[in-house]
Specification:
By secondary structure, the protein is mostly beta strands. Helix content is 7%, strand content 26%. Strands 3-2-6-5 form a 4-stranded antiparallel beta sheet, with no helix packed on it. The chain has a 4-stranded mixed beta sheet with strand order 12-17-16-15, with no helix packed on it. The radius of gyration is 35 Å and the shape is elongated. 13% of the residues are buried.
Length: 340
């Protein structure tokens, strides 16, 4: 029994039942664009491939056993040979033959400035004098091999060969690829499987000697207090890692930022805190520390000083004021001590 070759049909049929409207098929070509799947002859768009296969045909006619037009050899010299798939300039991946544009092809010219930009950058190489821990993954994009030993991973065998992408990932209108390669795919899993286009040596640790020296910087700080806590803020953006160590009478702050910048400082406190009840929060523009007081007195300064310690919390401002509407005294304040 013959099988219909029309796109979207594919049914087995008998010639005696092959009437004018027996076949329902698609006259156009499949179009995959921005994750959507459709036929060029229809308006319906779907996401899943199974749904795409189930889109009903938009054209009716007789079943046919002839090869599709895009699979036959073109008879007209002006017709371009059909390709299994291609990606248009707009990022649309089209399967099957499409009408060829009649506009003349203008050859592209490359200016000297553009040619200069295309010069290959000097890539970082491993300093083989630096030891590498077993299991370290190659840093080159698209490689993924792990270090075993110098003879295996840095020698001349197959394991020492690194196949990677020197370019950057490009995600554009649903298509995914690398700037150094021409291949484009739609699914992210397929993007991860695109084989590297360049061969070289693995990069496990890089050249640490050429790394930029770390720069210690100073950041703006501010603080205020309540009757139970000291709120201290360090204003820093582009944070990579933030660590705070709380001691009874001091705090140590270590903030690593982009471009090899670092803020590291140990601050002695005016009086003691409770390290177990103190904590810090990393925000987008600052690092905020909440220090738990061990007494109810107010701090005239964050660090030790000769200033008088007030335990008042009123609305008059100045040292010791945090905005309360009534004046209160702590039982362990110096004011109470003078009355004994």
């Amino acid at each position: 029994m013959p099988k219909c070759t029309h796109k979207g049909c594919g049914k087995d049929f008998e010639e005696k039942d092959n009437k004018d409207n027996a076949c329902q098929f698609h006259s156009g070509a499949p179009v995959f664009h921005e994750g959507l799947k459709s036929w060029s002859c229809c308006e319906k768009r779907v996401i899943e491939f199974d749904e795409f296969l189930n889109i009903p045909g938009c054209t009716f006619g007789r079943h046919s056993t002839e090869k599709p037009a895009d699979a036959t050899k073109p008879t007209d010299s002006t017709t371009t040979k059909s390709e299994p798939s291609k990606v248009t300039k707009e990022g649309v991946e089209v399967y099957g033959q499409q009408p060829q544009s009649q506009s003349p092809v203008v050859p592209k010219t490359t200016t000297p400035a553009v040619e200069a930009e295309k010069k290959e950058e000097i890539e970082e190489e491993d300093d083989e004098s630096i030891p590498v821990a077993a299991g370290t993954t190659c840093k080159r994009k698209g490689c993924g091999k792990q270090y075993k030993d110098d003879a295996t991973s840095r020698g001349h065998g197959a394991e020492a060969k690194c196949v990677y992408h020197p370019g950057t990932p490009i995600f554009h209108e649903g298509s995914k690829g690398w700037s150094c390669c021409k291949r484009r795919v739609l699914e992210f899993d397929e993007f991860l499987k695109i084989q590297g286009c360049k061969e070289g040596k693995h990069l496990f640790v890089g050249n640490l000697g050429s790394a930029k020296q770390e720069e210690l910087i100073d950041c703006r700080t501010d603080w205020y207090q309540t009757q139970t806590h000291i709120i201290f803020s360090v204003f820093a953006k582009d944070k990579v890692d933030s660590q705070v160590s709380f001691e009874k009478e001091s705090i140590t702050i270590d903030i690593k930022m982009k471009n090899n910048r670092r803020y590291k400082k140990t601050i002695s406190l005016y009086t003691s805190i409770d390290p177990n009840e103190s904590k810090f929060t990393v925000l987008s523009t600052k690092l905020e520390l909440k220090l738990k007081k061990t007494s109810g007195i107010s701090w005239p300064s964050l660090e030790p000083s000769n200033a008088t310690s007030y335990s008042t919390f009123g609305v008059t401002g100045g040292g010791g004021s945090v905005g309360a509407k009534e004046m209160t005294y702590s039982s362990d304040s110096p004011f109470q001590a003078t009355k004994k």
